Amino acid sequence: MNPKTKYEVGSIPHAEHPQPQMQRDAWLCLNGWWRLAKRDASGVQSDVGEILVPFSPETKNSGIEEGFVLKSGEMLIYQRNFDISEALLQGKLLLHFGAVDSACRIFLNGVQVGAHVGGFTAFFCDITDAVRLGKNELLVECTDEATRNSGARGKQSDKRGGIWYTPQSGIWQTVWLESMPKKHIHGLKIVPDAAKKTVEISTQSFGEEVAITVFDGDRVILSQTYLDKAVLAYDFELWSPEHPKLYDFELKTASGDCVRSYFGVRSFGTTTDKNGKARLTLNGKPYFFNGVLDQGYWSDGMLTYPSDGAVVEELQMLKDMGFNTLRKHIKMEPMRWYYHCDRLGIAVWQDFVNGGGEYQFTHVAAFPFLGFHHRDDDYKYFAREDARGREEFCRSVDETMEQLGNCVSIAVWVPFNEGWGQFDSAQMTEYVRKKDPTRIIDSVSGWHDQGVGKTELRSLHTYYTRLKVPRDSRPVVLSEFGGYSMKVEGHVFDEEHEFGYKKFRSTEALIAALRVLYLQKLKPLIAKGLCGCIYTQVSDVEEEINGLVTYDRAVIKVPVKEMRRINDEISAEAAKIL
Predict the structure, then answer these.
(1) pTM assigned to the model
(2) What mean pLDDT comes out for the span 452-462?
(3) What is the CATH number assigned to the segment(s) 186-263?
């Protein structure tokens, strides 16, 4: 496995349509080579060179000289020209950004057309009034203070090391244009009901009727019209990781708008089994979620994976290893990543990206290991005193759920992780539940649990202590465990430093340890009520070398067949118990 991709001048990375659930034919990818400048805190501007968007300037794939750093008070200035044909001037033209870290202003032909704060969520600008036929100039000004204030930053840190990684900045997901009629379809929401085998499709369309056609492969299975909402009833096959059935559909209006999308029919929830133990469910039946923690970092692109093919290869490898779940850890991916999880059959536990101030290790980590859980309305304790930072997180929750709400594979929302930026989690959990009652919520993954009835999971992170299932009325999951590390010479980020929870020096020793961990320590817990497990982790990340594969994806440290044998035994045990 070596999905590393090289790009030549003139080529366009990530050129596939970036929104598989909202596709129009009239669109234009603006990835590729841009000009990049940097303006310092005093206003002096200097040329950096050509940058390959959507890779951040700190990455190898960007084409920018190694060692680039954006300091506090500095600004990135992206510039490129593009041509607009009459085919893209149908009535309304939107400029989309997959993600820009962390704040930006956008100018088209000298006119500011938009701005955004938040480095992980998508946004768009309506450029209809500023665009012109033929040549146009696009300018994007970016600042990134998220690692220095209380904004959302994920795992990025100016003090890189251990579980904290090199920060990056600027544009790191696809930039693209989308054209549509003035009266167009928007606000698509898809709500499946596995029990009733129905799907509710709702949109807004400026008062026009929408014709919907549903396909099973090439065959039309449903066709009807609606104004605001359609309820589709059919003997739909249910989606699961073992049977990732998707249905394509098309929406059309009299004004000429046409959108292609897809859905899957499934449900996630909780139940109590015959022995009185709380269980997680898929499609109304108890289901064991067996997954891996996925940081989504790549050696040559950091937050940006090198190509669509690279991520498909990685997801397929994890499926071949026998995993059915990924926990997307403190990061959001491009929409195509979720599409591939939908179609390949991988359930996703989605973290919200958090921030906050610099909190004390004893408060966030050491005390919880001893069983101490602090109340999270104490903003000072959790370094959440900055009201603007809390407000930004609340906005990002709405943006995240709006952006990812239609993804078939997302089973669990994870608002907070290990106390990082945690605050008012009971209220936040209730807000998320009301906004989306169709998914499970892991309110405070790891520790600082706020009590029975305030979260849908009892969520444990266990690295140094014995694996166990505590008594609880809620489903119990190991939302992080393992973290076994093995250094592969020639394939490490840092020869001097390595981080892992338990170190091994050979493949044989690592496999033997994993067999003990899964088959002797974890497997018996399924009968005792364990509902899911998330092993740390998919890949090495910088000096954290506890991945199943190396950071450069050149070496699979745990052979696929060996991991599959282990997971097949876990699956068989779960099938017997559940």
Answers:
(1) 0.97
(2) 82
(3) 2.60.40.10
